[in-house]
Amino acid sequence: MLTPDDVDPWAKPPKPPLPRKELKALQRRRNAPALRYVVGHLLIAAVTATLIALSWGTWWMLPTMFAHGITLVFLFAPMHECTHGTAFRTRWMNSTFATFCGAVLMRPALYFRYRHAAHHSYTQDPERDPDQVAMPEGLAEYLGEVFGMEFWPKMIGTLYRGVTGRFNEREKTFLPESERSRIIWEARLMVGFYAALAAASVVFSFWIGVLAFWIVPRIIAEPTLRLVRMAEHTGMEEGADPLTNTRTTLSNPVVRFLYWQMPYHAEHHMAPSVPFHNLRALHQALPGKPEEREYVISKGYVRAHRDIVANLGNGAGSTVPTTTALAATAGR
């Protein structure tokens, strides 16, 4: 707990060690890259949906629904980027696509915008970061995180409190009073839409389609997103420095595309105003080779989780060994 005499380490986080002109060029927002990603992401979703239809009534439905679910849960990435206001240059495009993605994910986009702003302002602060990630105390807790044992109740609770307007004390710290009525109506419209869709699907007998193409894939693929998101901060230091509280995970082009370049997560926290399509360029522009940099770079999600699991049982406040141990195997 900070006292009035303390200097808040989160008040002024460090910036990327780049010349101002170079950083400003990377901060330039454009519509075209996001439009390409949107079209590509939705085309992949259309392909996986078609595979569900082609495999209807066979055991192949299970893997195709899982694959389709991955495309759905990874809509979290564009929602995240749009709530930053950096996916598109045009403001209404950001708000419209964020709302669409939020509806698919059952996560109110406006609420997320303010919650996520607090996460960036106070990353890994146990008291002020609403998404602070503590190190799991054991394998059971780790698996619980992977399979969303806390995520699903939290998501349902967020919708309930949004509909009723009964925000908890932590939410009141990051939801501006001036915006709470909009956040309440956002949640009510979302729940109203879901209720209307459920009723219509029963009356007009397309409820199986809703389950097969949306609800079931959305649920069974969530662990893939949990694994990716856990790698960002799990086992990182509870401090204000993005060099030590956030992990970059090098991955393949498919993951980078579906996750809208967010595997470069330390870079994102160093400079949240840099659009997703320039994060790789920011990563490459930083001084020194990756293995020489003073922040954690894991070579793939398997490596990141192997390091996390290897350090389970060290206590909730423990961290995964940083910099030299992990960065030594990193590469571009």
TrEMBL record:
The keyword Coiled coil does not apply. The chain crosses the membrane at residues 34-54, 60-80, 191-216. GO terms for molecular function: oxidoreductase activity, acting on paired donors, with oxidation of a pair of donors resulting in the reduction of molecular oxygen to two molecules of water. It comes from the Bacteria. The keyword Iron-sulfur does not apply. InterPro entries: FA_desaturase_dom (IPR005804), Fatty_acid_desaturase (IPR012171). Keywords: Membrane, Transmembrane, Transmembrane helix. Residues 58-295 form the Fatty acid desaturase domain. One of its GO terms (cellular component) is membrane. One of its GO terms (biological process) is lipid biosynthetic process. This is Fatty acid desaturase domain-containing protein. The lineage of its organism: Bacteria, Bacillati, Actinomycetota, Actinomycetes, Kitasatosporales.
